Amino acid sequence: SQQGEEDPQALSIQEGENATMNCSYKTSINNLQWYRQNSGRGLVHLILIRSNEREKHSGRLRVTLDTSKKSSSLLITASRAADTASYFCATAEANSKLTFGKGITLSVRP
Amino acid sequence: DGGITQSPKYLFRKEGQNVTLSCEQNLNHDAMYWYRQDPGQGLRLIYYSQIVNDFQKGDIAEGYSVSREKKESFPLTVTSAQKNPTAFYLCASSFAHGYEQYFGPGTRLTVT
Predict the structure, then answer these.
(1) Which residues are A22's β-sheet partners?
(2) For residue A13, what pLDDT is reported?
(3) Do B100 and A33 touch (CB under 8 A)?
(4) Chain B: residue whose CA lies nearest to A105
(5) Which residue among A61, A77, A100, B34 has its CA within the 20 to 30 Å range from the CA of A22?
């Protein structure tokens, strides 16, 4: 069952630009997480934001959460070619497993 | 060096054969998960386990089986009943449900 839906499906930007990715979900959540996957590899956890938090930062990453709109955004500032990857949002309902979206493919052109 | 490992990285099998994928973690995590990923798709949950000797079916459990006899290990068997077994399989672990998950490097299974 799919909970989070990312938007856009694919994004291509120039190195140095900012990349914004969005995730919408349907039910109440405990937390929302973002993961990165390089081609052919496992996922890597980037950041977790709890339902009572509105914004969180980690290095060049900024995540926002709007529970009234059931949406989250991931901003990567000053993108680098090494940021090229697929990005997934995952939602956790209370006492429940994570549900992953289908992912966003980000290409950063050097 | 803590982490989660999967082996082998690539696996080739003939149709009709069962195959077992290995997943081991030394993170002392209670919860472990198996996902299937097809090209351009998200992750679909096959099975998960919240504690030793207990596991539950995920969204696409048909044709798969698991065991959880030790905390560190959660092997997945792809049986001959699985109609489209060729895929990328990912194992993950976490402290508990809803916490961040740590993923292994994946096993790419090709069945011909």
Answers:
(1) A7, A73
(2) 96
(3) yes
(4) B40
(5) B34
> A2 pLDDT exceeds 90?
no
Please give the share of chain A, as a percent, with pLDDT higher than 70: 97
Give B81-89 contacts, CB < 8 A, sequence gap 24+. B85/B13, B85/B19, B85/B109, B85/B111, B86/B110, B86/B111, B87/B36, B87/B37, B87/B38, B88/A40, B88/B36, B88/B37, B88/B38, B89/B6, B89/B21, B89/B34, B89/B35, B89/B36, B89/B37, B89/B46
Is the CB of B42 less than 8 angstroms away from the CB of A103? Answer: yes
pLDDT tens by residue, B34-89? 999 998 778 999 999 999 999 999 999 999 999 999 999 999 999 999 999 999 99
* Nearest alpha carbon to residue B105 among B92, B94, B96: B92
| Residue B103 sits at the chain A interface (C-beta within 8 Å) | yes
- The pair of structure tokens assigned to A98 is 């994570």
What confidence category does residue A95 fall into, taking pLDDT thresholds of 50, 70 and 90?
confident
The token pair at A83 is 């940021």
The encoded tokens of residue A103 equal 């992912």
pLDDT of A52 over the 90 cut: yes
